[in-house]
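In response to the reviewer comment on reproducibility (Comment 2.3), we provide here a single inverse folding case reported in full, input and output, so that an independent group could reproduce the run without further information from us. The structure tokens appear first.
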């Protein structure tokens, strides 16, 4: 037993326990007081022996890693004392890995990768260099707090059996994240028994490099090649809907997907040279099979071929790609470049850590603070020493110095329960952005909400084309999606010529021509966004029937930070998202003032505040509306009878005629086909008198729902996090059958004068008292919208003038493949963040971005 000469963390307990330890002759006697706290990991227990819960310290860090022998959480040297003080757990396993560069001997014999292979079995560390060039020397010991007594391991003969078993289980525990991996595939694919002896017909078939199509149905998507005779057929029967699969060989005789280690030889029999078609893969990035149209995009966005200068220090730390997680890294880099997120999570770091739950790996605020500190502290982005650079020059070799931080804990937390983000597949960065904002909203109840900077109000103006009457509503949004009208391309003639050449090449089985990228003005995207759009299934309250309607959208408020997504993705014939190849001249400065909403204009007449008819089930009719008069709607009975003669239920035919606005049996027939599977298809059409404005649901003590149901607490939390009073949020949910979107509309249209003082009080309670947040908004022109009442959502309205400060770019054919990187403007210069690599940008490709981030310009 050894006692450290210097106790880190400020421990000064050197009294009776120290003297007892010196007198102890048996380790068992020393551990007796702590035996009840030492546990053996059971099935389902997660052992975090690779990374600290509060930092990115690992066994390779200077201070090593301390694993609690009760909770199995890992802590760096700076955080283990906090866990001891909070929980009273005294026994920790200290893990330390010493990394040494292998000596290059003349014999060139293989040097063992580990000297102590038993200590860190299945240890996952985030190394950016080639592990074969290094050897590891591992060290493990038990440490007893608060006096830091050390017991070297292994010490099997002297330790109690329980302690020995617990230590061995911790050292050999698998990664806590590996249990997620099987979600991406069901079973391991085996090598086909026919791979070695496959007989291929010498029938002279040679597969051309392009123009492939099914020999039976002319299908050009999802094609499969028969390796025996060279026949090409479509794979509809085998398609799993994902559009991307690791399975590319299927054996009919074995009736399963298989591996073919001789696939290159088998394809070359039909003239396919895999060496020229081989894909490049780096850090989990998938590069598409069609290199010519995408090579330029990859090179331009990543600024390949340029000598980019690496940058280090606070704010210049990269995020490691864990395998198709670049979409998450890019979004997080942009979020933590925004002061509000920095103040919320990094400015309150100590408070968040001190009040974290017993399992900080499951706390969103803790993991966001951990990542934010890792990115902004500069602790994990230090430039190489001059001696290291000289040594590299002498050896004529270059080693990657930028390692970055791993978002593994945060990814595991935010993706839990999500069918897509919890997988190992590539995802849409925009969808993740919205997902993260929703999580921030849910976890910001009663405190400063950094996502307020993105929130804005949209005014939707819907007009009935027949009566010309209008309705204005408002909704909350966090991002505007701009269409990209190909027809507005400045090189339209060039595009048409390319399409003609491409079609001719496909028909004649010739190589495809060099692709042409559409160039679309940003003003055309804004124009398409502001143009009226048809409202499907519009029900006019003026006609009390379905009619044609159009909608236009404007900004009821402007956010402090504006997020703009370019709608580059569409769906192909195989229902797989595909990206349109286009370049848009996105401006550095943007003025949207002309898109400010104006509200109801003079001469406009509003649509009546009536709801569409509600068809009540048979068992509730007469219960909740016993005294309600039933309105007899105007229905073209002749059209209904004409449909009934075709064999449809009469009541269904009457509903079809009514909901299509008495526009004839043909329209009603289409409605029947679309709704005939609904359970209330044949129920009679009933219009309760609650539709009368004098019997508005806001005046009803029971609200709009027949049953006084309690709304879900999660829905209440989302509304309160937007700044609405709790009581008003509950009432809104009850009046809209717990529908969040309708509840927001209800709040906007039912301001409660009697609750204004309560609302102000509730909003005041949500203001933070911590000095780090007291002046969070003092640097901008942001204010609450002057025309908003106190019950509205928190919005930081201000001028609609913006400056571009970041954008996320995507490379690849669809959101389900490819790679994401981001460019961020810091200190007046553009910086490219490509996973763990952070460099000064020489030529930021602003015209090829996918998501753009603007910050509001000061009014001065």
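Designed residues, in position order:
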């Amino acid at each position: 037993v050894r006692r450290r000469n210097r106790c880190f963390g400020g421990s000064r307990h050197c009294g009776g326990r120290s003297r007892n330890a010196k007198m102890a002759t048996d380790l068992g006697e020393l551990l007796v007081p702590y035996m009840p706290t030492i546990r053996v990991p059971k099935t389902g227990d997660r052992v975090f022996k690779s990374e600290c819960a509060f930092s990115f310290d690992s066994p390779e860090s200077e201070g090593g890693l301390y694993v609690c022998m009760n909770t199995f959480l890992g802590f760096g040297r700076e955080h283990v004392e906090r866990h001891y003080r909070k929980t009273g757990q005294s026994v920790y396993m200290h893990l330390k890995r010493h990394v040494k560069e292998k000596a290059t001997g003349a014999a060139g014999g293989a040097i063992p990768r580990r000297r102590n292979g038993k200590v860190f079995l299945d240890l996952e560390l985030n190394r950016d260099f080639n592990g074969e060039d290094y050897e590891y020397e591992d060290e493990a010991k038990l440490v007893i707090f608060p006096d830091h007594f050390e017991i070297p391991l292994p010490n099997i003969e002297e330790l109690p059996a329980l302690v020995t078993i617990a230590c061995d289980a911790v050292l050999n525990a698998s990664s806590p994240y590996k249990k997620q991996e099987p979600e991406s595939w069901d079973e391991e694919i085996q090598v086909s028994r026919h791979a070695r002896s496959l007989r291929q017909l010498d029938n002279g078939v040679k597969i051309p490099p392009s123009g492939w199509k099914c020999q039976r149905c002319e299908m050009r998507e999802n094609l499969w090649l028969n390796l025996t005779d060279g026949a090409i057929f479509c794979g509809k029967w085998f398609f799993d809907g994902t559009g991307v699969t690791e399975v590319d060989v299927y054996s009919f005789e074995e009736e399963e997907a298989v591996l073919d280690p001789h696939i290159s030889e088998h394809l070359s029999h039909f003239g396919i040279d895999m060496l020229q078609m081989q894909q490049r893969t780096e850090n989990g990035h998938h590069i598409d099979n069609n290199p010519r149209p995408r090579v330029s995009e990859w090179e331009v966005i990543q600024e390949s071929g340029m000598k980019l200068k690496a940058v280090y220090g606070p704010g210049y730390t990269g995020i490691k790609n864990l395998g198709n997680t670049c979409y998450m890294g890019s979004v997080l880099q942009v979020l933590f470049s925004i002061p509000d997120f920095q103040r919320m999570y990094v400015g309150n770091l100590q408070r968040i850590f001190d009040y974290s739950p017993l399992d900080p790996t499951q706390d969103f605020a803790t993991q966001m603070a951990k990542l934010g500190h890792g990115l902004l502290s500069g602790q994990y982005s230090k430039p190489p020493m001059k001696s290291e650079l000289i040594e590299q020059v002498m050896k004529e070799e270059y080693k990657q110095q930028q390692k970055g931080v791993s978002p593994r804990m945060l990814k595991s937390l935010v993706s839990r329960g999500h069918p897509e983000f919890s997988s190992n597949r590539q995802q849409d960065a925009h969808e993740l952005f919205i997902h993260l904002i929703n999580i921030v909203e849910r976890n910001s109840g009663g405190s400063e909400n950094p996502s307020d900077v993105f929130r804005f109000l949209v005014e939707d103006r819907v007009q009935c084309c027949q009566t010309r009457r209008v309705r204005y509503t408002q909704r909350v949004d966090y991002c505007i999606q701009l269409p990209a009208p190909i027809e507005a391309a400045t090189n339209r003639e060039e595009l048409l010529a390319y399409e003609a050449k491409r079609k001719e090449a496909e028909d004649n089985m010739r190589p495809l021509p060099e692709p042409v990228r559409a160039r679309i003005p940003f003003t055309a995207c804004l124009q398409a966004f502001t143009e009226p759009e048809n409202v499907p299934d519009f029900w006019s309250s003026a006609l009390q029937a379905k009619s044609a309607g159009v909608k236009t959208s404007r900004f009821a408020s402007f956010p402090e930070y504006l997020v703009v997504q370019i709608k580059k993705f569409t769906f192909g014939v195989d229902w797989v998202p595909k990206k349109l190849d286009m370049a848009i001249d996105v401006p550095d400065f943007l003025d949207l003032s002309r898109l400010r909403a104006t509200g109801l204009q003079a001469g406009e007449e509003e649509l009546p505040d009536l709801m569409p008819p509600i068809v009540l089930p048979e068992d509730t009719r007469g219960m909740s509306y016993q005294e309600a008069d039933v309105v007899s709607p105007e229905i073209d009975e002749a059209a209904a009878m004409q449909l009934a003669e075709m064999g449809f239920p009469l009541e269904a035919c009457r509903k079809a005629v009514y909901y299509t606005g008495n526009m004839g049996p043909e329209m009603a027939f289409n409605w029947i086909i679309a709704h005939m599977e609904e359970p209330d298809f044949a129920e009679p059409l009933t219009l309760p008198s609650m539709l009368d404005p004098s019997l508005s649901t806001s005046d009803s003590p029971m609200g709009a729902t027949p049953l006084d149901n309690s709304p879900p607490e999660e829905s209440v939390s989302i509304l309160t996090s937007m700044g609405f009073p709790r009581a008003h949020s509950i009432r809104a949910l009850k009046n809209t059958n717990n529908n969040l979107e309708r509840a927001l509309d209800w709040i906007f249209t039912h301001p409660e004068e009697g609750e204004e003082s309560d609302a102000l009080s509730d909003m005041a309670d949500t203001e933070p008292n911590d000095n780090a947040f007291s002046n969070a908004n003092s640097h901008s022109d942001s204010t609450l919208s002057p025309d908003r009442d106190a019950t509205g959502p928190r919005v930081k309205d201000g001028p609609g003038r913006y400056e571009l400060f970041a954008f996320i770019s995507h490379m690849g054919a669809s959101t389900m493949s490819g790679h994401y990187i981001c460019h961020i403007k810091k200190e007046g210069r553009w910086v490219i963040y490509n996973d763990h690599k952070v460099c000064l940008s020489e030529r930021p490709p602003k015209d090829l971005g996918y998501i753009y981030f603007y910050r509001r310009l000061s009014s001065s």
